[in-house]
Amino acid sequence: MAAGKKIRKAREGIDREKLYPLADAVKMVKERASAKFDETIEIAMNLGVDPRHADQMVRGVVTLPNGTGRTLRVGVFARGAKAEEAKAAGADVVGAEDLVEKVNGGAIDFDRCIATPDMMPLVGRLGKVLGPRGMMPNPKIGTVTMDITNAVKGAKGGSVEFRVEKAGIVQAGIGKASFSEDKLVQNVKALADAVAKAKPAGSKGTYIQRVAISSTMGPGVKIEPSTLTS
Q1: CA distance 97 to 121
Q2: 225 phi and psi, to 5 degrees?
Q3: Distance (Å, whole) CA 89 – CA 140
Q4: Does residue 172 contact residue 189 with C-beta atoms inside 8 Å?
Q5: Distance CA 200, CA 33 (A)
Q6: How many CB atoms lie within 10 A of CB 121?
């Protein structure tokens, strides 16, 4: 079947203007995830913020109750005992000056980055490399910490970092098409709750304005925002 026909078929039964209850939206997206691989289920949340203002930045981390279905490679900047702790916790890449040099040269062999506080003067030099990728360690989201074991295990076990983009949108993967509907609903609610709690003081009016869910290859389905917490 041609790609165009597949897309049209997948859109059948979806009213693109209607806001669906969360459980119904999840069911519709799962039913239409028909790729030959296990598609990622993604959510996009339009927020009533202007990220250009510092007091309207939304950022945080949440551990999804059912994981993401994705195996993340975790890099840790640490020395000595903390470096050994990172390795024991399952970090994929561990180093200090040597790792800084590799990353600065473009060799980024990890998806999530954690650092001990004493390493930040060194890691700070990588802002131009890690910053645009959203990978710069930050104490506000628990990626600059002395508790390396829990940080690594959290990253490996399904913690999701979220950060509002320039257009006021938070996007995140919340599971796989192979997950049950209940597990996907639980993950969406956990993320929505974390985003709600991260509401900045500078946000005025309606905070969570529009929400849509989709699979990697499937059409988007709009969600009634009030059902994210019910």
Answers
A1: 11
A2: -55, -35
A3: 21
A4: no
A5: 35
A6: 8
Asked if residues 41 and 173 have their Cβ atoms less than 8 Å apart, the reply is yes
- Look at residue 3 and tell me whether its pLDDT is greater than 70: no
What is the rounded distance in angstroms from the CA atom of residue 74 to the CA atom of residue 42? 21
Measured distance between the N- and C-terminal CA atoms of the chain, rounded to whole angstroms: 39
Which pLDDT belongs to residue 1?
44
Task: State which H helix or E strand residue 187 sits in.
Answer: helix 181-197
Q: What is the pLDDT of residues 112-138, one digit of tens each?
A: 999 999 999 999 999 999 988 889 999
Helix 80-89 × helix 148-157 angle, to 10°: 30
- pLDDT tens digits for range 30-77: 999 888 999 999 999 999 999 888 889 898 889 899 988 888 899 999
Q: Are 44 and 211 in contact (CB under 8 A)?
A: yes
Dist CA 6 CA 69 (whole Å): 25
What tokens does 206 get? 């309606």
If pLDDT is split at 50, 70 and 90, which confidence band does 7 have? low
- Quote the pLDDT of residue 4: 63
For 142, phi then psi, to 5°, come to 80, 15
Q: Bridge partners of 211? A: 45, 223
| Mean pLDDT score across all residues of the chain | 91
Alpha-carbon distance values, 61 to 93, 138, 145, 167, 197 (Å): 21, 11, 14, 20, 11
C-alpha 112/C-alpha 71 separation (Å) is 11
Tokens at residue 176, please? 């796989």
User: Residues 16, 210: contact at Cβ < 8 Å?
Assistant: no
